[in-house]
Amino acid sequence: xxxxxxxxxxxxxxxxxxxxxxxxxxxxxxxxxxxxxxxxxxxxxxxxxxxxxxxxxxxxxxxxxxxxxxxxxxxxxxxxxxxxxxxxxxxxxxxxxxxxxxxxxxxxxxxxxxxxxxxxxxxxxxxxxxxxxxxxxxxxxxxxxxxxxxxxxxxxxxxxxxxxxxxxxxxxxxxxxxxxxxxxxxxxxxxxxxxxxxxxxxxxxxxxxxxxxxxxxxxxxxxxxxxxxxxxxxxxxxxxxxxxxxxxxxxxxxxxxxxxxxxxxxxxxxxxxxxxxxxxxxxxxxxxxxxxxxxxxxx
Length: 299
Prior knowledge:
By secondary structure, the chain is of the alpha/beta class. The chain contains 8 helices and 15 strands. It has a single domain, classed as Carbon-nitrogen hydrolase (Nitrilase/N-carbamoyl-D-aminoacid amidohydrolase), CATH 3.60.110.10.
């Protein structure tokens, strides 16, 4: 079996919504093979001023409910162009009045299908409220995708939980302008290896980020990457059944971490989380048959 997903990772500087809409239409025409377009973190909500007071004022002024005008325009764009669209993350004004850094997803039918609030903001610089829920969504005919925002990738619990929820591809949207992008590249490969799934890390281009976006396969190999902070669109066609194959036959034909435990093995205490690792739960979501069946899941 093959489940081929053509995708475009857009390493771009931040844009206004108007410029984004015009640019997206051009990119869809130029890369017609791609069904999924992914943009960087806060692509439509980046303040030009570096001062903390100015950033906070910008956040207060530009945060919107997800079903506001911005969301309706993005949904309409995805529907008109017939694509899966992840326009990066946006500043969301929650019903609780708080501001969140939220990744959003729109379907080719012009519907909002997923929203994920960043669980691990980069403190103390990032002053948004923290989300609490891990989020995956199903792409009909393809498989299951998990959402991650920038600093989330530094916490192995995050990518592991998405994998446990069945994510075959993790989209990590990023806006990193700092020297630790070198380490983030290694982390992207490590998260792909330990969870045996695809990882796409989509950073902003200069001047808002240092670029070096990349797509990693379930064995940790870099499939495509940007060499620096240039404005670039990385296009590839991945086979999500590679996740099933690697988990079934092992990384390098050897390692199968999702088959580590039998259901009757003892639980392992996890004092850091005041919890435990339950062998029965470890295996439940990640059998190859479960992942294969996701190809028929509704959007």
